[in-house]
Design brief:
This protein is an alpha+beta fold. 44% of the residues lie in helices and 11% in strands.
């Protein structure tokens, strides 16, 4: 489960978000610059999330990264890929498992992606190898997020490589150059666990960004609520689990196929007088949805 599931599966939560937050209009009309080249929309979208974060790291060498979501399929004991896994007691991280053909393939994908990513950071050259690694990492994400194993793991299609090429070529670097702070795919510490998992795409200084590769330039209510969910989680804990707590005053959607970053001020959409009460309600509602696991009594 996740923040996305929490919002999509509960009508009362969506209703409360509509009451609390005022969605700003999308006052622009932009042509699509990179139309999709296949119907593998989710795969390409996730792959572009990886690719853009790689690109942003090149722009901002001091950007703070965390372990890729794809890596969780080989480091988390809940992964359906792992057999006979043993964990490190202090961290709960998998330290050994019985290798299967699938785990060997996933391991090769991750190792190759790290080599290609490192080469890109060093040279700045975006190669087909990097595109292919982004697509393969995107195939691993659903293993951790949804327990789904792609039967085509490790295989990529030429049109998807070309799609990623078109998307990255239209990125305007100035949109993602940070002055002070850059976070790549951050979570929200204990607040992410409150909703069964939540990770944002980017934080650039005081701007929280979500990436969308939809072919239609449409600021959907679901997009807005997802962003505001991140803002609430930041209010409960802190993005990136950083101390001191970073200031987040703006949020936005990067519409990748239009090379358009739609940004709005949080103070324009949040009723500050009732926000604290809303946050208290959110915490109680999430705790009811995702109760903490019961600990076994000591013998």
């Amino acid at each position: 489960m996740s923040l996305t599931s929490f919002l999509s599966n509960n009508q009362d939560v969506r209703d409360r978000f509509r009451q609390q937050f005022n969605k700003p209009p999308l006052a622009t009309d932009k042509d699509i610059l990179a139309p999709p080249l296949s119907n593998r929309y989710t795969l390409v979208g996730t792959a572009f999330d990886y690719l853009l974060r790689f690109y942003v790291k090149r722009l901002n060498p001091d950007a703070i990264e965390r372990q890729w979501v794809a890596e969780h399929c080989l480091t988390n004991p809940s992964s359906p890929l792992l057999v006979d896994a043993t964990m490190e007691i202090d961290t709960g991280t998998v330290v050994s498992y019985t290798e299967t053909n699938l785990t060997k393939k996933a391991k090769r994908i991750i190792e190759r992606a790290k080599v290609n990513y490192s080469a890109f950071l060093h040279s700045g050259q975006i190669t087909d190898d990097l595109f292919e690694s982004a697509l393969c990492l995107a195939q691993l994400d659903p293993i951790w997020r949804a327990g789904f194993i792609d039967k085509n793991m490790g295989d990529v299609q030429d049109e998807d490589v070309e799609d990623l090429r078109n998307l990255i070529l239209i990125v305007e670097p100035k949109l993602f150059k940070a002055k002070h702070l850059c976070l790549l795919n951050p979570t929200f510490g204990e607040a992410s666990r409150l909703v069964g998992g939540a990770d944002a795409d980017l934080v650039i200084d005081d701007l929280l960004i979500d990436i969308k590769t939809t072919k239609k330039l449409d600021f959907k209510t679901t997009f807005f609520h997802q962003l505001m969910g991140y803002v609430v989680l930041h209010e409960i804990a802190r993005v990136g689990d950083l101390k001191p707590k970073p200031s987040v005053t703006k949020a936005g959607i990067y519409f990748a196929r239009h090379a358009y970053l739609h940004v709005f001020q949080l103070d324009a959409v949040i009723d500050r007088d009732s926000f604290s009460e809303f946050v208290r309600w959110f915490k109680e509602r999430a705790a009811n949805e995702y109760p903490p696991p019961k600990l076994k009594p000591p013998h």
